Amino acid sequence: MTNDLNKLNSIKSWSIDDRPREKMLAKGRQSLTDSELLAIILGSGSVGESAVELSKRILNDHRNNLNELGKISIKDLVRKYKGIGEAKAINIIAALELGRRR
Q1: What digits encode the pLDDT tens for the residues 77-93?
Q2: Type and span of the H or E element at 82
């Protein structure tokens, strides 16, 4: 049952036009939402939750404000979100810091 749930929520089961990476290739980076961009950075979700769904939840918890999200610690990301380990948390923080510096 868990594997069936993972397959249903997996981005690979989505239409090609809806997959973030493919959407970026076909329509350009401007066509992606913040949650889709964050999902690309994450690379994968967790059991029962796609990377896009996890990204939406993370952003929602931070009022969809990337500046606010950029202030959270690596430790807090790991502690608060199932499916976010240290490596994914570091990817998020590094990407947001790179954007801030830009």
Answers
A1: 999 999 999 999 999 99
A2: none
